[in-house]
Hints:
Number of strands: 27
Structural class: mainly beta
Largest sheet: 27 strands, mixed
Shape: elongated
Radius of gyration: 23 Å
Mean pLDDT: 96
Distance between the termini: 68 Å
Amino acid sequence: MNRKITRMTFDEERALYGLRDAVVDDCTFAGPADGESALKESENVEVRNCRFSLRYPLWHARHFLLADSSLDELTRAPIWYASDGRIDGTEINGVKCLRECRNISLSGVRAVSPEFGWKCAEINMSRCDITSEYFLLECAGGHIDGLKLKGKYSFQYTQGLTVENSDLDTKDAFWHAKNLVIRNCTVKGEYLAWYSDGITFENCRIIGTQPLCYCKNLKLVDCTMEDTDLAFEYSDVEADVRGNIVSVKNPKSGYIKAGSVGEIILRDSVMETNCEIFVGDGENQSAVLK
């Protein structure tokens, strides 16, 4: 790095616009001038131990590091159109963080940010704690491990993503998602993954009403289901479930294997349904619908 900027306060418009090959350490971005876009169009910049309270600080940033910093609720839309960056150990409270970004890695990030991560590609997350109503809308590619998520309409229209070892407390998650792997996760919500195509749940705990309806190419491998009534309606499914499913309604095709099913509902279907259902454990499993 050719330049180091330390212990300074900036509040003017585009304070460090176009900064290159620099370290920004222990600085504050706040003040009466209320300027925007402090580090817009920066490249190869490390931002460490800084405090942000102004809008749009890292738009169009490239090859950046944001570490051990804080972005308060006044830091609206802090990182858009950025690429090849890392965010480590940082707390984010500004709305709409990350939009149309590419190849961003986050580790140890805590964020409360509605509309977090929209329309991004190759987002990788490790040990993050995120609260966001619409999390990762229309994202493509990437890997998530150890996420604690509190959301509502998460992962809608995502593609090609792997989520592992995570706790997802979210409502209508994974709607219209394609080609995802969800592994070793707890997924709690309502109306899980409707209209999805190519989702595989492996060793997951799935909780909540009316999950996995209108799905194509759906797979459940060694999963458990709790409070999951009216599951699999009009879905093409291959499911191996440990324990009980409260009820299954009009599954379209494939098979469902479970320890037990409280109720199988086959009525009022608007399309042909010929899914096979087996109940019991191990060698004692038998077909109840074939």
